[in-house]
Amino acid sequence: MKKFLPLEIIGIMIFSILVPVSIVSAQVAQPNVCSTASSSDLKSMCNDFKTLCSDIKNDTQKNNCSALKKEIEGFAKDEKDLNEQIATSGKLSKEVAMLTAEINKKKSDIAVKNKTLQQLAGQITEKKKTIQSLDEKRQNQETSLAQILRKKHQFDDYSFAEMFLSQSSLSSFFEGVDQLEVINKGIQDSLGIVKKTKQQTNKEKETLEERRNRENNLKYELENQKKSVETTQTEKNKTLQVSKGQEANYQAVLKDRQKRISQIRSALIQFQGSGISSKSISFGQAYDYAKLASQKTGLDPAFVLAIMQQESGFGNNVGGCYITDLTTGNGVGIQSGTVYEKVMGSGSLSFFETITRELGLDWKKTPISCPIDIKGVGTATKYYDGRGYGGAMGYTQFIPSTWVLVNERVKQNLGISVANPWNPRDAVMATAVFVLDKGAIGDAAKNYNAYYNAACKYYGSCSNYATSVMNKATIIRQTINQLEQLSQ
């Protein structure tokens, strides 16, 4: 049965042609496999590519044509494998068994890490209790010492006559003084021991906490490795099932693979109020931008995409307002017409005016996020202490005063003269530069704490935001791994 290019891809290509973005002169070369295509399916795909990608007019169309080229080449490889027959069942079975063993090993390692973390948590708790007990002991000893000192001062203030009248004998009086001196010295010595013991216990607690952080990093790395192996095992198992005499169904596997690639590349990340055109972009485009940012900063692209996805999830509060007064920062809801007090903070207003002017935009008609009723007092339209502001711009929701901190490096990294927070490529690069400044470094799977803290600083506080970003990064990393495997 003749197969045609999936409608999702055709739809994206047609949409790209209809929506002008920017004129580009570079063309995407036809897949090499098209020159030797023999099957009707591959010929049909190559004809579609020639029709849709012969005259590229914008960056979005170019990106989609590049994605289509990869998909056609992947399909050709699978088709070649089918034509050569699948004679590698034994090898695949061994690979699946090895992957299963590796997964079980990772599970055991994770279980050990969990046990270690539990033990460390218990030890840290005990150290805290010891420190508290030492503090209580120190306080009691200091109280006793104060009483002895008062008593000693009383003895020091006695006149000879008072000593004579108040004691049965002088020897008894001086014996009492000597006893106080002995007790005083004992308490002083004990205080020194308590102080030294507390310092040592504090040092031990800090060492345990440092070890706990290292164990957390190792556990997170193991979990990501396990998920990566599981993804590989899933793909191997699917191919293995085909290898075991199911050649008649291999065409369905090819179609399923093609469909999954299309779904991944075309899965839309919604950015309500993503800027001037409020245009969503495909996962494939977002990933391309994140890879570019990773090349320039060394950061994990999955984490950068997780920030991007997290920032897009605020619904109507993303890009739902306009500024109406650059003096007060007041604004209005785009759809509702509701008046908001201080949509943007005073420290960002001049920067916002400069940014929009440099981009040739009308600041009165440029969407920004609306304020949120954080404390739940009933309304976000009236400003109150603690409500905060809206005023965030573009795909990754930068406050204007923050955007200017990364603007020059974004331009330098991308080789452009003007950076635009409403351009997804520029916004992704800005996010990478910003979190790099906040301490994120290297592979997120190996540096969990650094990325977690960077997410906290990106948001402004360590709420559920950072945990949500890290969870999203794990899921996105799996999707990336799957996409890379399917595109090979």
3D architecture notes:
The chain has 488 residues and is mainly alpha-helical. It is 66% helix and 2% strand. The chain has 14 helices and five strands. Helix 7 packs across helix 14 and helix 8 (283-297) crosses helix 9 (301-311). The relative contact order is 0.09.
Total strands: the figure is 5
State which percent range the strand residues make up: under 5%
Overall helicity: 55-70%
Q: What characterizes the major β-sheet?
A: 3 strands, antiparallel
Question: How is the topology of this model organized?
Answer:
Blueprint lengths: L6 H12 L21 H14 L5 H25 L5 H69 L2 H7 L3 H74 L6 H17 L1 E2 L11 E2 H15 L3 H11 L9 E3 L7 E3 L5 E2 L5 H13 L41 H15 L9 H14 L10 H12 L4 H24 L1
Antiparallel strand pairs: 1-2, 3-4, 4-5
For the structure shown, list the relevant keywords.
mainly alpha, two-stranded antiparallel sheet, 5 strands, about 0% strand, disordered N terminus
